[in-house]
Amino acid sequence: MLSPPGIDRHTHLEGSLDPAWVRVEAARRGLILPESLLRLWNGEVLPFEGFIEAFLFGAGFLDSAAAIRAAVEAAVNRLPTVDGPRGIDLWVSPHFLVAHKGLLSLDELWIGLDEGIAAARTSGVSIAVVVDAVNHFGPLHGHATLNLVLPEKPAWVVGFSTGGLEGVPFREWAPVFARARSAGLRIAAHAGENGPGSNVAEAILEGGVARIVHGIRGANDPATLDLLAERRIPVDICLRSNACLVPEMRPHPLPGLLKAGVRCALGTDDPGVMPCDMASEWAEAIRLGLDTAELGLLKGFASADAWCLA
Q: How far apart are CA 270 and CA 14, in angstroms?
């Protein structure tokens, strides 16, 4: 059987903190762990709002360069030790951390990330950062995010994405994506996760998105599958996260996506909130019934389309 890929194609910095670290930090601050977080750590399925509460609790501890570095280290520690490339495409929300919540300065964020990325490099792990904006906050928020990060953008910031609730049409985000692209950033979007499957095609055709995160609600539409396959659009699949947040999509459509020629690869999404690592994601892919050839495709796409290896 093939070994798991050494590339985590999608994980959020804010959702990557080690649960043991979060427990210690909560006790140090005299805070009680929310029930939603405890339930997710226990493997339960919650509505998206419960996940957001749990996510925000841990993210609130990212108030220093040292905490940022700890989150990067936790993400790196979830990679398997394998022959071949190892790396992470790391989604980071600077506007949320710096401007919206005021947890730390932009300089502190960049320092923590730079130190974490440098430490990862010494162990053979490459990391690329994708700046994540919030879809439901709208395009003005997207421009504010770019205003924050573009003036002194570190070299390891290579992409721009939208996450959150898919509440604003991607056509309205097109000018933001175009601006980010003109600044040299690659464009991705969470689409077809908590919004309709039609968002996947809209993100590509009207938003100009070159990479889809999740996309599973579009998996039953032949036209969407054809679009993804024909345009060779990479799709990041996060099995544990999807099981928690999109439980109605069972069995998971990953086998069908691969059979349709879609370039899927695995990621952990928020592994500090919904516990998993690349080894457990790979084991779940095997449980879905993927054969050796399909597992080979999944592993090959992980490296071929990874921004951290570009």
A: 8
- Sorted by sequence, the CB contacts under 8 Å of residue 221 that are 6+ apart come out as 197, 198, 201
Look up tokens 């024909």; give the residue.
230
Separation of alpha carbons 85 and 82, rounded Å: 8
Surface-to-core class of residue 151, CB atoms within 10 Å of its CB (0-12 exposed, 13-18 middle, 19+ buried) = exposed
Q: Write the DSSP symbol of residue 101.
A: S
pTM as predicted: 0.97
- Structure tokens that stand for 58 in this block: 């841990």
List, in sequence order, the alpha helices (H) in the chain.
19-29, 35-41, 48-59, 65-77, 94, 106-122, 139-149, 170-182, 198-205, 222-230, 239-245, 254-259, 278-287, 292-304
Say how far apart CA 268 and CA 279 lie, in whole Å.
10
| Mean pLDDT to the nearest integer, 176-180 | 98
**Domain ranges (residues) in the chain:** 7-309
Architecture of domain 7-309: Alpha-Beta Barrel (3.20)
Chain segment 38-54, per-residue pLDDT in tens? 999 999 998 888 999 99
**79 CB burial (10 A radius; 0-12, 13-18, 19+):** buried
Question: Is 233 in contact with 245 (CB distance < 8 Å)?
Answer: no
Q: Taking each helix axis from N to C terminus, what angle separates 278-287 and 292-304, rounded to the nearest 10 degrees?
A: 150
